[in-house]
Design brief:
Number of domains: 2
Structural class: mainly alpha
Bound molecules: iron/sulfur cluster
CATH class of the largest domain: Alpha Beta
Shape: elongated
Largest sheet: 3 strands, parallel
Radius of gyration: 22 Å
Strand content: 5-15%
Order of helices and strands: EHEHHEHHHHHEHEHHHHH
Strand order of the largest sheet: 1-2-3
CATH topology of the largest domain: Rossmann fold
């Protein structure tokens, strides 16, 4: 195996079947990073508890998400793919780190303020400590690199500060300061053409949808709002259908639509049918792999449990050094 440049850690909440936004914004990058780094990817079920009203879908959402990640190209023989709660050391490190975290720092984070706005009736302790748990994950697995979008960089900076504080205070090198790797996360809009694609808004297109479901969703996409009639010229620059064409269609087709739309040479229905076709074609290998892996659900759980074992082995080493540095008896 080629020498890897270091260890990458990343986690995502168990949201079930992944959609185009998840794929283009994270999973595609997860797959690519495997070529360069030793990767540790975690399904953060504990984080999910901060805003979950019910836990009944937690298990199925975890399974569906793992299935999509594997079908997208994660290689479990080299990459550690596991469930956060299967390495409970993260809770211990979270508690220890919380002792050196000023409360004001947490309540000042823009993401906390946003969560309060979204869930004004459930501002629980876990929500305040969310970034501490996130830092505990990153530091437990001694990640050297963490891929983040610009909006998440304050969380990583927060984790880096915790490392400096901890190591300085306890005169140790037990925790490793991770480097930031900015990833360009394309903002994928939902079928409403307005808001970021997301399940809660029901404006998403699932990777694992059938070709017919995909076509139905694509045909309902909002286009250039100024284009009222077939005979009106359109503006692809403000059209979300065109944004997806740029990702999933050939350069020739993109150029044709770009030119024809501006002179009403192509109608929106035709344009969307072409997108649905190209999208379905691009997803053929993914859907075939997914169906194959799904024939053996035990294998998916085995992969997650094996990942848990490997994650716990790293976590044990870190916690041994952390406890020794603090002087816990
Ligand atoms: Fe958008 Fe295509 Fe309609 Fe132009 S023709 S407005 S790019 S859907």
């Amino acid at each position: 195996m080629m020498n890897k440049k270091g260890r990458v850690f990343s986690g995502a909440r168990p949201t079930g079947r992944q959609h185009l936004g998840n794929y283009l914004g994270a999973v595609k990058n997860y797959v690519a990073l495997q070529d360069e780094f030793e990767c540790v990817y975690c399904i953060v079920d504990l984080h999910a508890l901060t805003t979950l009203e019910t836990t009944e879908n937690l298990r199925s959402n975890t399974y569906e998400m793992a299935l999509d990640w594997l079908a997208a190209g994660l290689r479990p023989e080299e990459t550690i793919l596991f469930i956060q709660s299967h390495a409970p050391q993260v809770c211990e490190l979270h508690t220890i780190l919380s002792m050196i975290t000023p409360l004001g720092k947490l309540t000042d984070l823009p993401t906390f303020k946003e969560k309060v706005r979204q869930n004004p009736n459930n501002v629980n302790y876990g929500l305040v400590g969310y970034p501490v748990l996130m830092a505990a994950d990153i530091l437990l697995y001694r990640a050297s690199v963490v891929p983040v979008g610009v909006d998440q960089s304050p969380h990583l900076e927060f984790a880096r500060e915790l490392v400096r504080t901890f190591n300085y205070h306890f005169k140790t090198q037990a925790l490793v300061e991770p480097a930031t790797r900015f990833t360009e996360v394309p903002k994928v809009l939902g079928i409403d053409g307005q808001q970021k694609m997301g399940k809660s808004l029901n404006n998403h297109i699932e990777l694992a949808a059938t070709p017919e479901e995909t076509q139905k969703r694509v045909l309902s996409m909002v286009t250039d709002p100024q284009r009222q009639r077939r005979t009106d010229a359109g503006n692809p620059d403000v059209c979300n259908v065109f944004s997806l064409h740029k990702i999933f269609s050939s350069a020739d087709e993109v150029a044709m639509i770009n030119a024809e739309c501006r002179k009403a040479g192509i109608g929106c229905v035709d344009c969307k049918k072409r997108l649905a076709h190209d999208l379905n074609e691009s997803l053929v290998p993914f859907r075939a792999r997914r169906a194959e892996i799904d024939q053996n659900p035990d294998r998916v759980w085995e992969i997650l449990h094996d990942g848990g074992r490997r994650a716990r082995a790293i976590a044990d080493e870190t916690m041994r050094d952390v406890r020794a540095a603090i002087g816990l008896p």
